[in-house]
Amino acid sequence: MALSKHLAGAAALVVGTAVALAGVAAPAQADREPAQADRESAQAERETRADKESARADRKPARADRQRIPGSAFGLAAQGPLAIKPLPAVESNGTPVSKSLLPPTDNGLINVSALTVSADRRNAAARATGVSALQQQITANAISAKCVGDKGVTNLANAKVAGREIDSSPAPNTTIPINIAPYGEGSVTFNKQQRLPDGRLSVTGMAVELPLPEGKKQTLDVSSVTCDERKKRKIREDHDDSSTRGKKVEDVSTAVEEERVVPEAPVPAPVDAELPVTG
Length: 279
Known about the structure:
This protein is an alpha+beta fold. The chain contains one helix and 15 strands. The chain folds into two domains: 1-67; 72-231 and 256-274, no CATH class. It has one helix at residues 2-65, and strands spanning 72-79, 84-91, 97-101, 110-111, 114-119, 123-133, 138-148, 151-157, 160-161, 164-165, 174-181, 184-195, 201-211, 217-227, 271-274. The protein starts with a helix and ends in a 5-residue tail after the last strand.
């Protein structure tokens, strides 16, 4: 009987111990579940961050494709029976670059005393001095073109077409017809401006186009520059950045400094000229 009591007491002790251990194990299990959830949340956050970084990496080439193309310029070029590759020619890689040249004067189409060109990330300029073309039917002490972003101008010094004086700051695409015997009517365009397919602005100080037999033509470009459009930042109050709060942000909108474009072109008037025929 006493043995039975002892056995019953031992069994009760075992059951009590098991209940106590179960009570301890339950909170431990409960503690592990939030920890597991925290680990899973951290893993999900890492994966999300990796996905965002991968997406940014994928977008970088597209962003590079949208980068501004630096400026370029050349002093003289011709296409047709008389072909002259652009010279001197410069194209900036983002840093300033310039060239000067004393070109040969025996091509029979144009004589130029000197050519100077320059370009950088946002600007380009070209200047030709001592210009005489088409047997002196076109003359100028200087023809210069300049562009800044998407703005451009041409300046002329004592320019004449068959004796007719040309405004020193011609409006964009000021075109003067000129009759070249025996071929017919050609044209001289000052401050020729055109938008290229890639969005850049091209400005040519003087562009000559002459008719030739069989529908062909001879072209001549003097002082030509190309610039890319740059974004405008307006003057504003910045309330987000504490370093600039309450301060004016500089306006860097495109502009051509110290130069003016005449708003309206003069009415074109035909000019008769004779060009000796060779060959």
